[in-house]
Design a protein that fits this description.
Elongation Factor Tu (Ef-tu), domain 3; alpha+beta; OB fold (Dihydrolipoamide Acetyltransferase, E2P); six-stranded antiparallel beta barrel; four-stranded antiparallel β-sheet; elongated; about 20% strand; 5 helices; disordered N terminus
């Protein structure tokens, strides 16, 4: 149909508008479908690239990760001195417990005192016999040529007894200090007297060895031989008495304690009564599996993490590697677990002071050597 001006006109305008709206809807739908397809393909490609690379690619100018590691192993915190396991050398009933868990102890300090009546009786008997033999020998003059040796023997024995007396004095001062307030001066004086007595004993023993080495010494007589035997008996009785005192061989801290007054102790290396360690410095013993042994060397940098201090890590270095593999200790279950494997024991020294305590389990991460 044409209008007056000769131009064509729509026969039905509403129908034309409906057709335009339908065309727009089709174009919008096509754009949406295309975008969805592109999005899916792009996501699939990106996902494949990430899976292929393993991680986003870092810039070549980025610094190396200081926490990157080449091997990891479970470990256990230990005192630098190790765990010193103490027990009774002879059977006996506990008379007095002098320390408790977390107490500091000095080197050679008594931590447990056993009942000692029998040992004291043996000491008294030996002392009486010794005094008798001493008088008998003194009534006789020294044999010609043995004068210097007799003096050296007497001086060495007197020095031995002086050490025993000084040690008893220090034991008493330390025991009193744990019960009551004792000035540090008293303890210091007792330690000084013991050190002096020990120095004197060393000098006198050296002089005795020199006197015994002189050539041409005459044979001893009966009285001198009897005195020598009496002194040996006295030394044996003193040793038995000393066995009624359980001492700490190091200065450190009591880590574990399993004893009460009145209990009977028997020698048992598998069941220590007390465990002592030096907490002034701790280290870590790690159980490295065989497949990682070739990645380690002495001096290698590492870091330690603990579940107790989850937000911290502790720096250190490998100070020793065991010469051979052995059953694991630090792994859960220890060497008795069914899947236990032999491991290489690595010793890690930590930098500075750390809050870790002996016995705690940690994880050790070894950096690239």
């Amino acid at each position: 149909m044409h209008g007056p001006d000769g131009r064509a006109v729509l026969q039905d305008a509403p129908e034309f508008e409906r057709a335009q709206r339908a065309a727009r809807r089709l174009r919008i739908a096509a754009i949406a479908v295309g975008a969805a397809l592109l999005s899916g393909i792009g996501g699939y490609v990106l996902h494949g690239l990430i899976n292929f690379a393993g991680a986003p690619v870092a810039s070549s100018s980025a610094p190396p990760d200081k926490n990157a590691w080449v091997a990891a192993a479970p470990g256990r915190v230990e005192a630098s001195s190790g765990e010193i396991r103490l027990g009774a050398a002879v059977p006996g009933r506990i008379a007095r417990v002098l320390v408790h868990v977390d107490n500091r102890v000095e080197q050679a300090e008594v931590v447990i005192r056993l009942e000692d009546e029998a040992a004291r009786a043996r000491l008294a008997s030996a002392a009486a016999e010794l005094a008798t033999r001493q008088r008998e020998r003194d009534t006789q003059g020294p044999l010609q040529g043995r004068e210097d040796l007799r003096k050296a023997e007497d001086a060495a024995y007197a020095a031995d007894r002086a050490v025993v007396a000084a040690r008893a004095e220090l034991d008493a001062a330390q025991e009193t200090a744990r019960r009551d307030a004792v000035s540090e001066g008293i303890l210091a004086n007792a330690r000084s007297r013991l050190a002096e007595a020990q120095d004197r004993r060393q000098r006198e023993r050296a002089a005795l060895a020199e006197a015994q080495a002189k050539p041409g010494l005459p044979a001893t007589n009966r009285a001198e031989a009897a005195l020598t035997m009496a002194r040996a008996t006295m030394a044996a009785a003193q040793a038995q008495f000393d066995n009624t005192r359980i001492r700490s061989p190091i200065a450190g801290t009591v880590l574990q304690f399993r004893a009460r007054a009145g209990e009977t102790l028997v020698p048992s290396p598998d069941a220590p009564t007390i465990i002592v360690g030096d907490l002034g410095h701790v280290l870590v013993k790690a159980d490295v599996e065989e497949r990682d042994v070739g990645k380690l060397k002495v001096g290698q940098s590492c870091f330690v993490r603990s579940g107790v201090f989850a937000d911290r890590q502790f720096e250190g270095k490998v100070t020793a590697l065991a010469p051979a593999l052995e059953p694991a200790r630090a792994m859960p279950g220890g060497p008795n677990r069914p899947e236990a494997r032999d491991v290489l024991r690595a010793t890690i020294e930590l930098d500075g002071e750390v809050p870790l305590r002996p016995g705690q389990r940690v994880d050790v991460f070894f950096r690239q050597p």
